[in-house]
Design a protein that fits this description.
It is a single chain. The strands form three sheets. The chain has a six-stranded parallel beta sheet with strand order 5-4-1-8-9-10, with helices on both faces. Strands 3-2-6-7 form a four-stranded mixed beta sheet. Helix 1 packs across helix 8 (253-266), helix 6 (188-195) packs across helix 7 (202-214) and helix 8 packs antiparallel against helix 9. It has a single domain (6-22, 37-305), classed as 3-Layer(aba) Sandwich (UDP-N-acetylmuramoyl-L-alanine:D-glutamate ligase), CATH 3.40.1190. The chain is an alpha/beta fold and 311 residues long. 35% of the residues lie in helices and 23% in strands. The protein is built from ten helices and 13 strands.
């Protein structure tokens, strides 16, 4: 059996409010949607859940609001076996929420109201320092203040801890603040926003990854949705295709990729094999509805992996 990695996620926790519809309303128009789903989400929380379901020991560092969603979010972490010691409520602030609109083909549009996620500060990372020093990997996203992201990357570098950043949602950044990263994992739109280069196809993705590497980022993994992933470093680039699956809701697929990738790396797999498995894990998440509720546990994933690699 591989060792059980210890993974800390410093990041966001939201409640997802998902509406399924064939059409989007025009300005001033009211239409009927097909159905509605409420679930726990937030990129950080989703990535923590994916890592835990795949077999990691997971620790969450986050902030939630002083509303109905705050205690429920903390209880959800505990129920899933995620250490929530460093998930705290912030008085007078709402929890983060994400209204999500999903078209019939599975494509999603998401609005994020950060709420208490904006209250996660560098001092909160210091408060969790003793725990963080014991983990194998720290995972970050952009639904918390950038100053906290940069501070945590520096903390990881100082203590020799592997660090993975998912720059989502995409926004302009100080590249110097992320040069200590081990892995920079954007999707196409995030890579476009950060690099200023278009990413419309695989050649564009390679050119964009090349620029990010030139800017001083050590390793880039660009997730390409139905086209799989691009693994890029100064040693070269490799496109790893996606697996054939019937997608019904792509919400949370990127988070499924990040959390599972961190786990597979922590178990000692090569980058390439970790990406291949994460491609499948992310793809499987799109065959169900919602984010965390659509993620596979390890037994289900291993069965799928075995079936697809024996055929």
């Amino acid at each position: 059996m591989p060792k059980r990695p210890r993974i800390a996620v410093v990041g966001s926790a939201n409640v997802d409010l998902t509406t399924f519809t064939d059409l989007f309303p025009k300005p001033g128009e009211t239409i009927f949607g097909q159905k509605f789903d409420l679930g726990f989400g937030g990129k950080g929380a989703n990535q923590a859940v994916a890592a835990q379901l795949c077999g990691a020991e997971v620790f969450m560092v986050a902030r939630v609001g002083s509303d109905l969603f705050g205690p429920a979010t903390i209880e959800n972490f505990k129920k899933l076996g995620i250490d929530a010691t460093h998930v705290k409520q912030v008085a007078g602030v709402s929890s983060g929420v994400a209204p999500i609109f999903v078209e019939s083909g599975g494509q999603n549009r998401i609005l994020v109201v950060k709420g208490a996620n904006d209250e996660l500060k560098p001092s909160d990372v210091d408060a969790a320092a003793e725990m963080l020093k014991t983990v194998d990997c720290i995972v970050l996203q952009f639904e918390i203040p950038l100053e906290t992201v940069y501070y945590t990357i520096a903390f990881a570098r100082k203590h020799g801890i592997r660090c993975i950043l998912n720059p989502a949602p995409g926004q302009p950044i100080d590249v110097d603040g992320i040069k200590g990263l081990d892995y920079f994992v954007p999707n196409e739109s995030e890579a476009e926003t950060i690099s200023g280069m278009p990413v419309r196809n695989l050649d564009d993705a390679k050119a964009c990854a090349g620029k990010l590497l030139k800017d001083g980022i050590g390793r880039v993994i660009m997730t390409l949705g139905a086209n799989g992933s691009l693994l890029a470093s100064r040693d070269g680039m490799e496109h790893l295709p996606a697996f054939a699956l019937k997608s019904i809701d792509s919400t949370g697929a990127g988070d499924a990729f990040i959390g599972s990738f961190a786990l597979f790396l922590g178990e000692g797999l090569s980058e390439r094999e970790a990406v291949r498995r994460a491609n499948l894990y992310a793809g499987l998440s799109t065959t169900g509805v919602g984010t965390q509720k659509s993620f596979y546990d390890r037994a289900r994933f291993d069965a799928e992996w075995k079936a697809r690699n024996e055929s």
